[in-house]
Design goal:
This is TerB family tellurite resistance protein. It comes from Shewanella hanedai. Residues 27-143 form the Co-chaperone DjlA N-terminal domain. α6 packs across α8. This protein has a single domain, classed as TerB-like, CATH 1.10.3680.10. Mean pLDDT is 85; it is low at 4-8. It has helices at residues 2-14, 18-37, 45-59, 63-78, 84-93, 96-111, 118-130, 135-147. By secondary structure, it is an all-alpha fold.
Length: 149
């Protein structure tokens, strides 16, 4: 049963158009960002404003497209069982630099409300591990985010 499901998912992923692959990748990235936003179980005004603006800049989306992506990712993220679901997609399609930018965005969101909670820190560290980033890269991205607060 599991082998059949894996085969279906693999063949479905390979049949996706480039636009669909980009959309899946964007959903995975936004889902990881939402993990940070909801880690402390509160959505601050700063986080609510920062996330869509990050998406419009990084992904060249309109404000309404960014909000739609956040809404769709919220549904997916709420039904997820682990970070691996999202990091696997990113590992398959992204460079080290792109992964570093994602971790930087996660740190920026974590510090947006002026304080870092331990759950935000844990999620970012776990994500960096799953993205095969070095600890020094993780710390470097954190320092950049702290400097730009």
């Amino acid at each position: 049963m599991i082998a059949a499901l894996k085969k279906f998912l693999t063949s479905h992923a390979q049949a996706a158009t480039p636009e669909e692959q980009t959309h899946h990748l964007n959903l995975a990235a936004v889902s990881l960002l939402l993990e940070v936003v909801f880690a402390d179980e509160t959505l601050s005004d700063e986080e609510a404003k920062l996330l869509p603006s990050m998406l419009t800049e990084a992904l060249d989306l309109s404000q309404s497209e960014a909000e739609g992506l956040v809404e769709e990712a919220t549904k997916i993220q709420g039904n997820s069982t682990s970070l691996y679901e999202f990091t696997n997609e990113i590992n398959q399609q992204c460079s080290i630099e792109q992964k570093q930018k994602l971790i930087l965005a996660m740190w920026k969101l974590a510090y947006a409300d002026g304080q870092l909670c331990r759950y935000e820190d844990q999620i970012i560290r776990r994500t960096a591990e799953l993205l095969y980033l070095k600890h020094s890269e993780l710390i470097q991205m954190r320092n950049v985010a702290m400097e730009n607060k």
